[in-house]
Amino acid sequence: MAPTAACPIVDVNLTSASKVYVDVPGYISVPQGAVSINTAPGMSANKKLSFGGGIFTATIGVSVDKPASLQLGLLNSVVQKTFKIVSQTVGTNPRVTATALVKVNQTGGYAINSWVTSFG
Questions:
Q1: Residue 49 CB-density burial (10 A; 0-12 exposed, 13-18 middle, 19+ buried)
Q2: Listed residue (87, 92, 13) closest to 49, CA to CA
Q3: Could you report the per-residue pLDDT of 81-99, keeping only the tens digit for each?
Q4: Is 42 exposed, middle or buried (0-12, 13-18, 19+ CB in 10 A)?
Q5: Which of 8, 70, 97, 110 shows its CA 20 to 30 Å from the CA of 88?
Q6: pLDDT of amino acid 5
Q7: Among candidates 1, 46, 49, which has minimal Cα distance to 19?
Q8: CB neighbours of 31 closer than 8 A, spacing ≥ 6?
Q9: Model pLDDT for residues 1-45, shown as the tens digit of each residue
Q10: C-alpha angle 67/69/73, rounded to 5°?
Q11: How many other C-beta atoms lie within 10 A of the C-beta of residue 22?
């Protein structure tokens, strides 16, 4: 029996002894839908599900029996490098300086932590 609504948008049914590996690195967004993860009794071995970007949904249902590995939520990426980027205008009037701190993580994603522009 499915643990959520009769017609989920994302429906994972693990009913055999076969090895299963599902990796969704981004997020799932079904704000008015349902996500269902159903593992048949005794079939949790060799099953790995990873929703690394998180799930935004109205309902999520997970059966009593769960996959051997079930990751629901955000992966905390390791920051590999932090760069300080300074840029200045060539002329002396007006003198504009922009300084940005950028962090790049192991997946290639990045974030601009601060960006300051000054005149003078």
A1: buried
A2: 13
A3: 999 999 999 877 888 999 9
A4: exposed
A5: 110
A6: 59
A7: 46
A8: 56, 57, 58
A9: 444 457 888 899 999 999 999 988 888 888 888 999 999 999 999
A10: 110
A11: 13
